[in-house]
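ARCHIVE CARD
Drawer: 12
Card no.: 0347
Subject: one protein chain, sequence and derived structure
Cross-reference: see card 0346
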Amino acid sequence: MNIRMVMLTSAAALAAAASPVFAADAIVAAEPEAVEYVRVCDAYGTGYFYIPGTETCLKVGGYLRFEVYGGPNQKGTSDWNARTRAQVSFTAKSDTEYGPLTGVIVLRNNGDNASTTSTLDSAYIDIAGLRAGLFYSWWDDDLSGEPDVLSSYQTLHNSIRYQYESGDFYAGISVDELEDGAGRTNGTTSSNPVGVAAAIGGKAGVVSYQLIGGYDTDTEEGAIRGMLFADIGPGTLGLAAVYASGINSYYDESEWTVAAEYAAKVTDKWTITPMAQYFGNYGHNATNTDFSSNDAWKVGVTVDYQIVDNLYAKATVDYTDVDHEDSVTKGFFRLQRAF
């Protein structure tokens, strides 16, 4: 390369270095926003998680149930009927200076045919022992088997209740709206009836107990019920007794009744529960002002089988004999998946 070429090349390089260079703006990827993954909340037991962005814990549960019932007039004049139920529940909890604040919503859909029926099964607020909303009363509790009759009419009320709890003991009082109770059902009231109920219960060793009472201000009658469970041998013995002063929204199947059962845990999967119940002055959902003079008795058996975790089958059959009436045999088969 000659001297002239070297000079020309050097001049071009210097000119290029001295000239400004324009280029398109560089594309800079934005930093991804932090994702707040769902966190497990173990403060209130299993199944709860934090609602993202809050300190409130939420639990979602429910079940799917298929049932086939058999007995007189189960569906119109048919002696059998099949139905399906789907239920989902939402429980929210958070800490406050008064203790856990709880909110519960339970939604239920009953499918008896192509037209289903959706209901609000429960919805209530609970804090520091005080509960207000739509929820089941203490009268909804019963023995572990299915055939016993230990309450009357609806046990789901709009209520306000206070329940004190200390260790294995509790006591409470509630005021219940009885819109679909004895007075309204029998057409003897035009007002909005109210009931007052109270309960004590707890556990002592292998024995658990409950004593409840309810007074219907519309019919001015009431009922009292006691239940006791004791772990004996391979199962649990259950005893119950009810007395009613007259027709009322808490119990009016009879003037009095006693019931007993034994839930025998045959294996880890099988439970067999025979039961018996006697009714004095029986009057099934009576529409008069006094109880019938008939007595009645009932026997039955319930079989539970745990197929796998969260899936079980239940079958029950019972026989009822009422004085001066035809005896009745009925039962059902249930398949249920919980979640």
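Annotation on reverse: The first strand starts at residue 40 and ends at 41. Helices lie at 3-18, 182-185.
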